Amino acid sequence: LTDNKIQSVATGGSVSNAMAVTANTVTLQAQDTTKAVDIGRSDLTSDTSLSGSVSGAFVTLNDQLIERSVLATTRGSDGTGAGFLVYSGGDVTDSTITNNRNTLSALAQAALATNSTTLTVAGSLTEADNVTSAATVANGAAIANIQEVTDGATLVEAVVDAASAVKIGLDDGLDGSTLAASANKVQASAEGATSTNVLTVTAGTINVADASTGNASTTAGVNDADANTAFAVANRQDSGTANVKAILYDSVMIETAIDSAVDASSVTSASNVLDAVASSNKATNTLSLSATTLSGDAGLVNNQSSETDALAWIGGYGAGGAFVAGASG
Description:
Helices cover 0% and strands 62% of the residues. With 329 residues, the protein is mostly beta strands. The chain starts with a strand and ends in a 15-residue tail after the last strand. The relative contact order is 0.22.
C-alpha cells in the first residue's frame, strides 16, 4: 500500500493573477499626485469592508471578501478505523509488507491569492518628461492585495479524524519477513488569509525618480495600506473573528501492531510526519528592481490584523486542555 492520498480541501476564494510585459522601451505616464495604491475601509455606513484603488501603467488589484465558514474534514472509516490499512489474521512468513508514502490530509483556506507582475525591458524604462509639480510621483507598476474574512465566517477548520491513519495490523507473528511503514504524512492545515505577491522589474535603465525627494512613501495604519511610489506592493489582510483550527484528533495515527513473536524479520517505521498548522494571516511579499542604471523609488507595505485565536492540536482534542502526543510501533 504505497503512494496513496486521501484528502479534503475547502477554499472560500482562490485566485491566481499574472501579468507579464516584454518590450524594448517603456515610457510611463506623467507624474501625478495620485497614490499608486490606496487601501482602506469604505466610508459607507452600509458597507464598511476593506476596499482599494490602484493607479499606474501596469497594475493588479485583488479583493477577496469571505463571509461564511470554511470547513474540511478527512476521516478514516468514519473516524473509527485506519485510512490506509494492511491487515493479516494469521502468521506472516517469508513476505514483504509495505505501507509507505501515504498521505491523509485536510486543508481549509478562507482566502488564497497569488499575484505576480513581471516587466522585462531590454532598453530604458522611463517616465513621461512633463513634470508639473514638485509633489508628484510616477506610477509605474503596482500590486494591491486585499483579503478580508468577515465576522460571518465564524470558523476556518481542518480536521483529520482516524483511529489510525496508517496502520499495519498482524493478529499473529512475523517470521523471515520485512515490514515497513515509513514516510507517511498525516496533516491538518487551516489558513485564514494567504497570499503571495511578487513584482519583478528588469531593465537596462530605470529612470523614474520623483521630482523632489521625500514624495515617495508607504503607510500602514489601523485599516490602511498605502504606497506612493513608482513601483509598489501592498498587502492588507484581516481575518476578523473567525476561529482558525487545525486538528489531528488522535496522536497515534501511524501504527504498527504485531500481536505475536517477531523472528528473523525486519520492522521499520521511519520518517513519518504528524502535522497540524493554523494561521490567521500569511503573506509573502517580494519586490525586485534590477538595472544597470537605476533612478527611482519603490515601496512595499504589509498590514495584517486578527481578532481571534489560531489553534493547532495533535491528540487529546477536547480533553479538558490536556493535550497528549504519542506514538506506537
